[in-house]
Amino acid sequence: MQDFTAALSTTPDLAHGMRKLGQFRAAFEDDARRLGARHGWRYDIDEQALARMFFDWIDAIGAQADGARANRADFTLFCGGLALAGLVRSAPARAHATGRPASRGDQELAADRIARFWPEGLLYVDFCISVVSAVFEQEFGAPPPLDPSLDDLRTWWSFRENVAEDPALAAAFFDRFLGRETDWTFPGQLGMRPDAAIEEDRDAPAKAIARN
Amino acid sequence: MLREISGGISSQARDRLRDLRDRVQARRREEGGQQRTRLLPPGIEGLLGQAASMVDDTMIAARSLSHSLFPELSDEHLAMLPLDRYFGAGGGERRFRHDMYRAARIAGARIGPETAALVREGVLSEAYAAARRQCAESIAMLASQGWGDKAGEDRAGEAARLCAALLGSILATPAGAATEDREATEVRAGCYAPGLLASAWSSVDGRAYEPQTLELAMLAVGARRERLATAAPSERPAEELAAAFHSMLLHLI
Q1: A18, A29, A48, A55: which to substitute to probe chain B, counting the most B Cβ within 10 Å?
Q2: Do A22 and B212 touch (CB under 8 A)?
Q3: Domain locations in chain B?
Q4: Model ipTM?
């Protein structure tokens, strides 16, 4: 995730770029290549499903764009959650095992276990968190802190089971992966978010890192 | 000879010749494996068969020759122009028909082989004339000196209006039938809209055409062709089609 985030961070005005189909598609395919090589998978991407997801996501963001003015940092997280829900719903990736990955440390072994459990889900989460982290680095100086539950396979069991029933819940899980409070009843509604009424605090990510 | 008669008539004639070729080729494939009942005396049927084969061979040879003489006009070297070049003072109707027809065939092939019969050069000629009448202001704006100084969103708006007039006219002309269902309209939108969108994209951001332009335009239209097909027969087709093109353009440029 970190190398992909670092690569994205060099893209000028990433938040704007991710709202362009060409850049969004290129970034998603780049992440699929990197992640697949790391965990021993090859991802086939349904380009048309990805494009449909992209425009549906753009429409969903556009309908609630006023939120960007109230709290840009939280709106960025919210957009990431909506993207994750869209990816889970449209399922544009199909993973094929290509062989055992090289030996590695404990953290990567945990990711390998998750990759074996749900390789497509790992790609969707990795992509959304990487993009949001890179946008935070560009706009607020530091990425949002990741929650330890992200490496816990039990969280992924729950994640997969819940979003299979209701893909919109992926947005709520996205907040949880980033250690944020969320609304589990209406995860796609910006106005229902616990942080929706809070004025933007540009130092929030840095403070959160200090707390952890 | 076809060059000397008007664009509309010559494109319709080419559509008819393509239909004829498709039928001859389908007949040849049918005859490949099975015996069939003869309806005419063998001598006459043989003569007709030879004549049909000559038409097919001549059209295949003409297509190969045109691709070798004008490689920039082949599918592999398709180079869409910005909208203002098609609608410029010099008149680019012939090039417009050629490029949009090729783009529609490429986009159609992506959808499925059944689209080949839906793509007609004749409707492009009619759409060109209709757009010239309906969008004189947008056309003048596209070619104006201050075009590049306008905000991207405004440029996208003007280009979207022109695309809407073109696609509105194309979809208002059913392919072969008096009326068509929503699904057929959707497929035709999927064939014709990518070329228009790719050309509009070049107009808005001023970059030269590259193959990825049509590729991304096909994906964008594929994601929104249902919306285009719904907008076309609506009460305000020009506005709704323009809104759909505008939205796609803003997320491509």
Answers
A1: A55
A2: yes
A3: 7-69, 76-250
A4: 0.83
